[in-house]
Specification:
The chain is built from 27 helices and 4 strands. With 763 residues, the chain is mostly helical. The strands form 2 sheets. The chain has a two-stranded antiparallel ribbon with strand order 1-2.
Length: 763
């Protein structure tokens, strides 16, 4: 390595000590003799000052450069945790010391000294991030602010992350240790081949086009086998991968899908594709049972699932950091960041601020690559459809998170001309036979749906993308800073158009057209899960519109309670699905959190309000049904959240709030009869306010006693001969069943025996 004047460059210890260096590599003999070979390295520009260093003032004495004894901590503006650029997270966590890896003559990026690293452990305190009117917590916060514990994310599983402390460690420095960490996590590669294959077999709604990634696996295996483990050759190989990453990924318009992998494998190997394989493996592992045989290696070694997922997440984070430092913007980068966002949401929970940041990274890369624009681009068919898929998936996720957090969305459809993907199978999409492709496209209907009744991965993306378009319009009214005068009329228009679209959706994808037994027993569980999720998303939009209207008038309360009850009763089917596969049950907490808990909060608070004000609930819902369904939900949430789910703490906190509200309602003691007697018309229960139970007397029937023994005697002597159909399961009765059931839930505990007979025990 030569200096500008043509002379050989000295190593840093010799240069600073003013000792003649013999310029040997990788370690000079002078440093070896002095016993400081671990400090020997060659700096490409040793006299260059970091950006922002003040110039020496005239007359200022020249200071001797002294190496600091302790590394200084540089904190970022918003206290973000930066990803390490050159130090292995494993080495930093375990504290093991590793010798400096010095570059050889062909490597332009030397390794900086160890003094540039420090550790900062994130403080375990919750932060009050902004949550708007549509957020998961807004329902419960209408009367009183929620405690900070509701919003705190669990800290278990988070490890301290190293932070760079000097400006000298920028993009021109070699990231040898982190490269070794990334590559080491991909061994044995046979495990990743198996996991990736299972991922696309099970996940029938992935935003990724499976054949495009699967075709790259054989070449990636050869690439990783040829990568040297340590030494100077490995440094050169990592530097070459980094150089490939800095180059644009140009896709010719005539490229075949089977040839796509040649742009990022082999001699063109890039960090993006390695990170994508890692994050796909982590995503699949999150929804796989810890006892699954896939976590057993060929030599019999057993892998810990939680540690594996965490390693995949950290390694993919490292890949993203390296690629972002070197300015990588391409389709694979967008896929990598989007999948990483999904893994983060499942690992840390959807209320983790890092999920929101990663969604922003996805959209930034997507716009930078121009994926939102289709006109004027010369794209091969498979890439055009892949871009439609990832755009639709990112757009839908943006609207989901915007609603969940109550924040403005980051993507707007008005700035894009990218249409929905076609409803075709992935294998057809990636085919090299134009005849097969054209024949498949010709069989699609005018809207782009397949006319054969098949359900492909693109089918779900199309459906959710269209629903997200309606959701964006709803968010404009829900989160708008200025209120529009004709909100009700505009929401009615949106509701009508949304209902018309839903009725036009192919019948094989509409959950409400199936009964529960046929949906969950006759269809594949994964299909039924996505069907109910799409149906709940459709109902949730009506729920959000009714919440907007309720802020303007109380006349919207009956419709709001009705749609809330529909959401709650639909989700409660999960309580019957306790024997489903781990892969299916793992999705339950997210569905309950996004669609069920807000509607349950509306019902619980309205029930509490009517109880305290001594007025009946609107006729659109039954008080007994509300109490019963809320009780079932509270019990369901306790078992449905499997260990390791990132949403565990948030669901538990919201479930506790539902429990407190329901306990308050059931423990409520109405005023004595002589204090608030009814108007004398005989429409109230003796000893109980008529407004609370609203139990009218029936001709020919004795008043229902309120004491437990008297009530049991009354049941024994009741006239059951003149019966009418009711909703109460003890027996058909001539009295309004809902009112009796309401009374029973308040005064008695009801147990069921094996024959379905109900037994009443006084509380």
């Amino acid at each position: 390595m030569l200096r500008r004047n043509g002379k050989l460059r000295s190593c840093e210890p010799c240069r600073i000590s003013k000792i003649r260096c013999d310029h040997a590599t990788p370690k000079c003999e002078k440093c070896r003799a002095r016993g400081i070979s671990e400090q020997c390295y060659y700096h490409p520009a040793p006299m260059t000052k970091p950006a922002g260093t003040p110039r020496k003032q005239p007359g200022e004495a020249r200071r001797r450069m002294v190496k600091p004894k302790h590394s200084e901590t540089r904190t970022t503006r918003d206290h973000e945790i930066l990803t390490p650029l050159y130090k292995s997270p494993t080495a930093l966590r375990t504290g093991e010391s590793r010798p400096d890896v010095c570059p050889h003559r062909g490597n332009p990026w030397p390794t900086p000294p160890e003094s540039a690293i420090s550790i900062r452990i994130p403080q375990e305190t919750g932060r009050g991030f902004y949550l708007g009117s549509t957020s998961y917590a807004s329902v419960f916060a209408e009367e009183h602010p929620l405690p900070d514990s509701v919003h705190e994310c669990p800290m278990e599983g988070r490890r301290p992350t190293p932070v760079l402390t000097t400006r000298t460690s920028a993009s021109r420095h070699c990231q040898v240790d982190i490269a070794q960490f990334i590559v080491s996590k991909l061994r044995p590669f046979s495990l990743f081949e198996k996991i990736t294959e299972e991922y696309f077999e099970i996940n029938k709604a992935s935003a990724l086009v499976g054949p495009l990634l699967m075709s790259a696996l054989p070449q990636l295996r050869r690439d990783l086998e040829q990568l040297p483990g340590t030494g100077h050759e490995s440094i050169a190989a990592y530097a070459e991968i980094t150089r490939n990453t800095t180059r644009p990924l140009k896709v010719p318009g005539t490229l075949l899908a089977s040839e796509f992998h040649t742009l990022f494998t082999g001699e063109n190997l890039r960090w993006e594709i390695l990170g994508l394989i890692l994050v796909v493996a982590g995503s699949h592992a999150q929804f796989t049972s810890p006892d699954d045989p896939i976590f057993t290696l060929e030599d019999g070694t057993r892998i810990n699932k939680d540690e594996f997922v965490e390693d995949m997440l950290h390694a993919s984070n490292d890949c993203i950091s390296v690629c972002q430092v070197h300015g990588a913007v391409n389709d694979i980068m967008v896929w990598l960041i989007y999948q990483n966002m999904l893994v983060n949401s499942n690992f840390y929970g959807d209320n983790y601020h890092g999920v929101w940041r990663r969604m922003s990274d996805t959209i930034s890369a997507l716009y930078a690559e121009g994926i939102h624009c289709e006109e004027g681009f010369d794209e091969p068919f498979f890439l055009r459809e892949a871009r439609r898929r990832i755009y639709a998936a990112a757009y839908r996720s943006d609207k989901m998170l915007a609603t969940f957090f109550g924040r403005p969305p980051m993507m707007a459809l008005r700035y894009s001309d990218r249409p929905m993907p076609l409803d075709i199978d992935d294998t057809i999409l990636a085919t090299s036979d134009p005849k097969v492709l054209n024949e498949t496209i010709s069989r699609l209907d005018n809207e782009g749906w397949n006319a054969e009744g098949k359900i492909w991965a693109s089918s779900w993306i199309r459906l959710r993308f269209q629903l997200a378009m309606f959701k964006e319009r709803i968010l404009e009214h829900s989160l708008a800073g200025r209120r529009d005068g004709d909100v009700a009329e505009k929401l009615l228009t949106i509701s009508t158009e949304c209902r018309q679209y839903w009725e036009s959706v192919p019948s094989q994808m509409r959950y409400e057209l199936y009964d529960e037994e046929s949906a969950w027993n006759d269809l594949e569980p994964g299909i039924a899960l996505r069907m109910i999720s799409a149906y709940l998303e459709y109902l949730h939009m009506e729920f959000q519109m009714q919440r907007i209207l309720r802020r303007q008038t109380q006349l919207a309360v009956p419709a709001l309670l009705e749609i809330s009850m529909k959401l709650l009763s639909t989700v409660l089917v999960f309580n019957k699905l306790r024997n489903q596969l781990y892969t299916i049950q793992r999705h339950f907490p997210t569905i309950i959190l996004f669609y069920c808990l807000p509607s349950a909060g509306v019902l619980a608070l309205e029930l509490r309000k009517c109880t305290l004000e001594n007025v009946p609930l609107p006729s659109t819902v039954s008080r007994a049904d509300v109490i019963r369904n809320l009780s079932v939900l509270i019990s369901c949430v306790d078992w449905v959240i499997l260990p390791g789910d990132g949403n565990h703490k948030l669901c538990s906190e919201l479930n506790k709030m539902l429990t407190l509200i329901l306990d308050e309602v059931l423990n409520y003691q109405p005023p004595a009869a002589n204090e608030s007697q009814a108007d004398g018309s005989g429409n109230g229960l003796p000893g109980v306010t008529s407004g609370f139970f609203d139990m009218p007397l029936i001709d020919g029937m004795e008043p229902i006693p309120t004491e437990s023994e008297d009530f049991l005697n009354w049941l024994d002597n009741a006239n059951w001969s003149n019966t009418v159909s009711t909703n109460f399961n003890i027996s058909p009765m001539i009295i309004p069943a809902v009112r009796v059931q309401d009374y029973l839930l308040t005064c008695y505990s009801i147990f069921f025996n094996v024959d379905g007979i109900q037994v009443l025990i006084p509380k």
